[in-house]
Amino acid sequence: MTTRFLIVAVLAAIVFFANIWGTSIYILDEAKNATCAKEMYQRGDLVVPTFNGNLRTDKPPLHYYFMMLSYHAFGEVTPFTARFFSSLMGVFTVLVTFYFVRRFTNEGTAFFTGLVLVSSLLFAAQFHLAVPDPYLVFFMTTGCFFLFAFIHGDSTKNLYLAFVCLSLGVLTKGPVAVVLPVLGVILYLLLVDRHTLLKKVWELKPIAALGILLVIVLPWYVSVYGATDGRWTEEFFLKHNVGRFTSTMEGHGGFPLAAPVIALAALLPSSVFIIQAVKMTWQTREENRFLLFVLCYGASILLFFTFSRTILPNYISPSLPFLAIVLGYYFDQRLNTQQALAKPLASLVVLFFLCVLMTVAAYFGIKQDDSIKELSQLALYVAILPMGALAGIVYLFLKKPYMIIYSITGSFIIFFLVVAFRVFPQLDQKNPVHTSRDIFQDFNGKVCYYGRFNPSFVFYHTGGVIPKIESQQQLAEVTNAPGDLLILSRKDKAEDLYAYDQLQPIFEQKDLFEGHTTVIFRKKASALGLSGYPAEGAETP
After folding, report:
1. Which end of the chain is more exposed for a tag (fewer CB within 10 A), N or C?
2. CA-wise closest residue to 15 among 355, 417, 330
3. pLDDT at site 508
4. In b/e form, how buried is each residue of 92-112, taking b as 16+ CB within 10 angstroms?
5. Is the pLDDT of residue 182 over 60?
6. In sequence order, what E strands does 451-497 have?
7. Do the beta carbons of residue 306 and residue 152 sit within 8 Å?
């Protein structure tokens, strides 16, 4: 265990675990995934995923299992326990990448690859969330490294380990965990020797791969098919796989080159050197097949999502470890051969202006949101980023190339830690689930929702499922029933509630980082025959 390995391991642990306990489960995807695991855990159910009591067909269950294990091991359902294994997967991904990069190139490339990854804001953010992507990234990354090891002469054990990892990826997020590696391997084999492609593919034992895949994933897929009369299977494969690729869903469309642009943004600050890095990697493809492999794999993922009609930043996350290797190799070769970084001034100037734009955008973005505009001074912390780029320019003229890399990656790491411990906790205090907590603490009646509502209310609701009011007739029945009543909704969905004489709006706030507004209605005191509301018997959501 070398000093560089320890440095990367410690940095990864610090960055990926930074304050995962200190902010709410609030972001939509995180709230739904963490709540789904909570409901399965409370029911002792390993088969049927549900959110708010309804079937959830978005993803297979492996990340739910890890969250359930964490809930059980720590004895509580909290943001920390929901995110614990996501952060651990981040550390594992960086360490596995370090190991294989050192094995197939050298320790310097492995070290700089680790720096690129831990300084990537998007990469670090992914491993702070209770979502399936951290698990997918780990299993796909590890599986593809094992595939390369087998292709280039290692024992068949590596091939079987690759199949196991990729099968676990399928149990995490579906067929994409196999489709993307297959595309990357085929592209690599085509470039190495297209005349023996079929022979090489057969040597990868596709029948054995299929067998291992079926052994690992089939028991659950068959079980959930039977338990839901095929509904989960139909919706997952047709809606959440084919549908997302062929049509824009939930407003998450993108422009034709969205995937590579997102990848470049994700790998800032190091990606300002990507042109030079890709050029160097391509030029050395005959000398080191591993570098060609990682370039092919990263490019195939970006190419695949270039054709997807639905795209989110997390979609391209599996490409980041491989693109980071390309950058890590470039830094190592330039620095350890006493060569200057190619055209560093232009790259650093671009980085500086990008960081300045990020600072300005953060300031005005917060300023324009009425619910958090008084916190606009928090945007000043973003100034850490252009300061790092400016320091890099200074070190360039001082002819200290190592310090260029350390200053720009270090500034992004410091900024992420500041965001995790200082910025986001303050913003998080302004989310409507947090600011409305006093309403629920003084409430012991029934909680329902109408139209749509913020899903994080369910995660914090100790009463279990929050039932939906499906129609105006049901609204009348619920409102006329004895006892107190709270109705959660969104302002654009709550027209009927505003018009209902027995209800009064008691809370309204724009959802943090979203375009809609949470509203809460309560049965009027007059409808309860009271002059005021009871203040005891609190039930906290």
Report:
1. N
2. 417
3. 93
4. bbbbbbbebbbebbebbbbbb
5. yes
6. 468-469, 485-490
7. no
129: left (phi over 0), alpha (psi -120 to 50) or beta: beta
- Token pair for 486: 């709270």
Phi, psi for 505 (deg, rounded to 5):
-70, 130
| Beta strands at 503-510 and 468-469: parallel, antiparallel or unpaired | unpaired
Residue found by looking up tokens 């001034």 in the block: 345
The string of DSSP letters for 302-349 reads HHHHHS-SS--GGGGGGGHHHHHHHHHHHHHHHHHTTPPPSSHHHHHH
Q: What is the pLDDT of residue 306?
A: 86
How, if at all, do strands 446-450 and 468-469 pair? parallel
Structure tokens at 134: 């951290």
Of 386, 327, 326, residue with least CA distance to 358: 386
Q: CA–CA separation, 126 vs 135, rounded Å?
A: 10
Q: Which position has the token pair 């004489």? A: 501
Average pLDDT, the chain: 91
Residue predicted with more confidence, 423 or 370: 423
Helix runs in 337-455, H state only: 344-367, 384-397, 401-418, 424-428, 432-435, 437-441
By three-state DSSP, how is residue 56 classified? coil
Distance of CA 135 to the CA centre of its chain: 10
> Quick one: tokens of 185?
């391997």
All residues at 6 or more sequence positions from 518 whose CB lies less than 8 Å from its CB, including other chains: 432, 433, 436, 453, 454, 488, 489, 490, 491, 507, 508, 509, 510, 511
C-beta neighbour count of 35 within 10 angstroms? 26
User: How much is the pLDDT for 538?
Assistant: 37
Sheet bearing 446-450, strands edge to edge: 468-469, 446-450, 485-490, 517-523, 503-510
pLDDT in tens, 21-77: 999 999 999 999 999 999 999 999 999 999 999 999 999 999 999 999 999 999 999
Q: If we measure between CA atoms, which residue out of 342, 335, 349, 338 comes closest to residue 277?
A: 342
Cα dist from 222 to 46, 48, 163, 165, 233, whole Å: 13, 11, 20, 20, 9
Assess whether pLDDT exceeds 70 at residue 509. yes
CA distances (Å), origin 296, targets 75, 111, 117, 183, 369 = 44, 21, 19, 9, 42
Which tokens is 418 given? 């500041």
